[in-house]
Design brief:
The complex is a heterodimer of chains A (80) and B (149). Chain A has 80 residues and is an alpha+beta fold. In chain A, 19% of the residues lie in helices and 26% in strands. Chain A has a five-stranded mixed sheet. In chain B, helix 2 packs antiparallel against helix 3. The chains are: A alpha+beta (80), B alpha+beta (149). The interface between A and B is medium-sized, with 23 and 39 residues.
């Protein structure tokens, strides 16, 4: 299946884009998507376990994904 | 009335406070965060705030709902700014009101601390020497406490 992954701030700069289209097997979980992401140029600058949000909520690494999910990799936050 | 907002416009702190006004509430706490002109010994001339806006709005809504659950009888509101800000400009305003002051203080404190911990917002500082860098306070931390179990 095809997944859209949103990137922000320092992670978007590291990978050179704010939006990636990745092809992954059906029933991929968040942790597997992160491993798939590591094959993308620039991903070496991501930390070992970056935060991931699915459908606008923080998600655990065993959370299963479907093609309609909105997936985002979240850099350390600095709001306030 | 919308009590959470992410905005590119300057924040009117009194307007945020007005969102929690109630004749039955005798205490209102207003927290205002502003851009500091220095960080870690370096002069800062400005900041870019960027957000995952859709999630930031949802998360801010969730934080406000949690504050109202934890501190029964409080009304809370918060607005976070995005875009380029100069020192002294307001980056966030949080207002909390309650019949009595203790819960108003507690609720306002809860909201700003959870915003700092969870809201998907990032800032890039502009230094006086012309360089710019993303601020990553928690970098290296696993952030696993944000992930549901």
């Amino acid at each position: 299946m095809q997944l859209t992954v949103l990137l922000f701030a320092s992670y978007a700069e590291a990978l050179g884009t704010a939006r990636l289209e990745l092809t992954v097997p059906e029933r991929t979980v968040v942790g597997e998507l992160v491993e798939r992401l590591r094959a993308v140029a620039g991903a070496g600058r991501l930390p070992p376990r970056p935060l991931v949000a699915v459908n606008r909520r923080y998600a655990a690494y065993d959370h299963p994904l479907t093609a309609s999910d909105e997936v985002a990799v979240i850099p350390p936050v600095a709001g306030g | 009335m919308t009590r959470a907002a992410i905005t590119a416009d300057p924040i009117d702190a009194a307007g945020v406070m007005a969102r929690v006004a109630s004749d039955s509430h005798g205490a209102t706490v207003l927290f205002v965060g502003t851009v500091r002109d220095h960080n870690g010994g370096q002069g800062v001339s400005g900041l870019d705030y960027t957000a995952y806006e859709a999630m930031a709005l949802d998360e801010l809504d969730r934080i406000l709902a949690e504050a109202q659950d934890r501190f029964a009888g409080t009304a809370v509101a918060a607005v976070h700014r995005v875009g380029t800000l100069a020192p002294g400009e307001i980056s966030i305003a949080v207002a909390a009101s309650h019949a009595h002051r203790a819960s108003a203080f507690d609720a306002a404190r809860y909201v700003i601390e959870e915003v700092k911990r969870r809201l998907p917002v990032w800032k890039r500082e502009h230094y006086l020497d012309g360089t710019r860098e993303w601020v990553a306070p928690g970098i290296g931390a696993a952030d696993d406490d944000l992930v549901p179990r």
